[in-house]
Inverse folding.
């Protein structure tokens, strides 16, 4: 470790804040994976998490969505701590969409049923309304003709776009994307990234864990560099990618450039 | 570089040879089957006691005379196992789900489910049929029927629910946790994720082993003759005693084979198809 870690989350608490994370810590057994994360994300903001494999990006996203219990710290939405034990985690999750690296579509359901499951069962939307909504969303992302297909008949890129639409159908306030292009063949990455660009253009608030540095530079309002469970450095992409202040960020970016991923 | 020794093998030649081999192995299989069964048949028929055995077990006249009544009595078996199968399908799933409930609150429920599975898989079916068929009706508790058919359904349901719940449980556990996580991340409750995402996939996966258990249940339906249900086995038994001839049992066997063979073949077909799919998926 060189230099003291800079604590993030210096954004003042504002009415437009979608989520605020304060000194979040999480261990798996003896392994401390997140060690005091501070991060606040404003409405319409796109935050990219970068960092080496194992630095805790996925764990952070899973904690925000309450898929992992946290050990210490707070996660605030609308000023209320959603990580408290008494909170109904289903209510929280319907406000936050998450898309995983492995698309995790439901293989026994058609694309349409995949997309309408949440709205129908969780939001209690009537079937025809849910289907109209889903059809519209699918069309917007170039999937209109795949409506009645089953996931195993789709390409990886199409599956991942369906997974994004499935999360969007819940009209979440916040989307968490966890390396959504890592499982794709290179020629399919672009179509998925363009979907994310469209979401950003539409004002969706997002936290994106990614290894695609070029993409992060394009799309992020803010980039956070995670190192060993801490946000070591954060700032606008222009600054992080050209003049990082932390030597470790520099090292990481050099490695990424050497690997040809930027 | 040295050229490969020997003439290059033409793909067409390989295909041709394979096709010829296919034809020849069918022929070999046919001939060896005919030879094998003729030999077995000859050994049996040429044994000195064959005429007696033929008369006692394979009397054509007795066979055809006893068949209609056995088939008629089989209706009882069919009713019995159809009712039991419906109950088993539902209760087995319930038991499997109860057993998967998390948290200390549900400990007694889990305990009960485990006890059910352990006790009824551990005891011989015939013992349960006896105990319920004779024991419970001997208690004479008012309100409880003492119709042996009722207790037959109950016994077989209890026993086969224990087996089938294990089949369901294996199916539920075989669905990758990321599926439930994806459902939960949409805001579905644990129960909704189970109901809409995990169980539908699990059930599809366990159809072959489920059918296997149903074949067992159908065969075990003859055991209830012991508590006085007049069904196919009991009918064959009555005829054997009346005619001093065992051919009615052979007729019963034939009837059961005709009934279970399609299910057996279907099960094997589904198992083979699943394995092919699995192999294709694992590529
Ligand atoms: N369920 C778990 N049980 C135990 N350890 C875990 C679990 N999930 C993650 N870890 C560990 O936590 C650390 C951080 O993992 P995480 O997946 O958050 O990293 P990441 O930054 O997303 O990495 P990558 O870029 O490879 O996706 C790793 O060392 C990982 O092995
Ligand atoms: Mg990850």
């Amino acid at each position: 470790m060189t230099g003291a870690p800079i604590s993030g989350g210096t954004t003042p608490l504002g009415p437009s804040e979608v989520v605020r994370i304060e000194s979040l810590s999480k261990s798996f057994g003896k392994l401390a994976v997140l060690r005091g994360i501070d991060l606040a994300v404003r409405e319409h903001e796109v935050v990219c998490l970068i960092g080496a494999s194992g630095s805790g990006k996925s764990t952070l996203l899973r904690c925000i969505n309450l898929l992992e219990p946290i050990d210490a710290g707070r996660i605030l939405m609308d000023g209320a701590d959603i990580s408290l034990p008494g909170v109904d985690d289903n209510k929280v999750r319907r406000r936050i969409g998450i898309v995983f690296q492995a698309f995790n579509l439901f293989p026994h359901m058609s694309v349409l049923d995949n997309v309408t499951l949440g709205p129908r069962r969780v939001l209690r939307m009537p079937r025809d309304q849910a289907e109209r909504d889903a059809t519209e969303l699918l069309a917007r992302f170039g999937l209109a003709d795949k409506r009645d297909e089953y996931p195993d008949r789709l390409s990886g890129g199409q599956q991942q776009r369906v997974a994004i639409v499935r999360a969007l159908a819940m009209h979440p306030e916040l989307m968490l994307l966890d390396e959504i292009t890592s499982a794709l063949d290179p020629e399919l990455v672009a179509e998925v990234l363009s979907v994310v660009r469209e979401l950003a253009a539409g004002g969706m608030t997002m936290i994106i864990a990614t290894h695609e540095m070029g993409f992060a530079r394009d799309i992020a309002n803010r980039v956070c560099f995670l190192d060993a469970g801490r946000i070591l450095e954060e700032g606008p992409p222009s600054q992080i990618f050209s003049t990082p202040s932390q030597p470790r960020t520099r090292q990481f970016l050099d490695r990424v450039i050497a690997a040809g991923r930027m | 570089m040295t050229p490969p020794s020997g003439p290059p093998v033409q793909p067409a030649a390989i295909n041709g040879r394979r096709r010829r081999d296919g034809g020849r192995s069918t022929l070999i299989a046919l001939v060896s089957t005919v030879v094998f069964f003729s030999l077995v048949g000859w050994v049996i028929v040429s044994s000195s006691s064959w005429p007696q055995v033929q008369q006692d077990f394979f009397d054509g006249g007795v066979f055809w005379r006893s068949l209609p009544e056995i088939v008629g009595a089989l209706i009882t078996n069919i009713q019995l196992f159809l009712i039991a199968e419906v109950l088993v399908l539902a209760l087995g799933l319930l038991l499997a789900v109860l057993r998967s409930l998390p948290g200390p609150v549900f400990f007694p429920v889990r305990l009960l489910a485990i006890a059910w599975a352990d006790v009824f898989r551990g005891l011989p079916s015939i013992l349960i049929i006896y105990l319920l068929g004779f024991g419970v009706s001997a208690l004479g508790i008012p309100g409880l029927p003492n119709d042996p058919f009722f207790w037959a359904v109950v016994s077989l349901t209890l026993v086969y629910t224990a087996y089938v719940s294990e089949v369901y449980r294996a199916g539920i556990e075989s669905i990758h946790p990321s599926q439930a996580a994806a459902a939960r991340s949409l805001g579905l409750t644990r129960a909704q994720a189970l109901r809409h995402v995990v169980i539908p996939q699990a059930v599809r996966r366990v159809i072959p082993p489920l059918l296997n258990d149903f074949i067992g249940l159908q065969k075990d339906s003859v055991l209830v003759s012991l508590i006085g249900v007049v069904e196919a086995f009991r009918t064959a038994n009555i005829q054997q005693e009346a005619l001093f001839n065992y051919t009615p049992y052979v007729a019963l066997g034939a009837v059961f084979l005709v009934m279970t063979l399609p299910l057996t073949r279907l099960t094997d077909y589904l198992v083979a198809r699943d394995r092919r799919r699995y192999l294709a998926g694992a590529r």
Residues 186-201 of chain A form the longest helix (16 residues). Strands of chain A lie at 17-28, 31-42, 46-51, 72-77, 80-81, 96-99, 174-178, 206-209, 222-227, 230-235. Chain A has nine helices and ten strands.
